[in-house]
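Many introductory courses stop at the sequence. We go one step further.
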Amino acid sequence: MSIHKIIGLFFLAGGLTSSLLAAENRPDVARIITKSDAADILGETVKDPSPRSGEGADGYYSKCNYYSLRRGRSLVIRLQLPGPNAIAPDKELQLVAQANGSMENVPGVGDAAQMFTAGGESGFASRVLMLYVVKGNAFLTIGVSGFANDAIALEKAKTVAQKLFEHL
């Protein structure tokens, strides 16, 4: 084998290795917020999740859903790190706010955060709280359902956000 082919293979292997390392260094929400963490947050045993992470046309994403064994409580986590041609996280937050209508600002979480609540009108603990957070170049969505008290659900969502921020 010629020296040029060896050098070419070396650079190809180096490029593949750095691409793999870059993907491995991306935050995986299921490894950061584990099944045990989700059970603690929801106050109930949870089913095995089906997490998913990867690069897409608009950047990197990582998502995981945790559902309680007994129906009613869930924790949904989505993390997006946009690519160069994707919508910036602050613009994404504006679009979500426009689509949802009545959202509240949530101070003290990330660079900007808003929440949306729905459900529970029947008196059952079927409320859903969605927390949308921008921090740097990350857009984070956390959904918590099954809590009748929005303040408790918001604190749980903030806890998840803070733990994820430690890995960005």
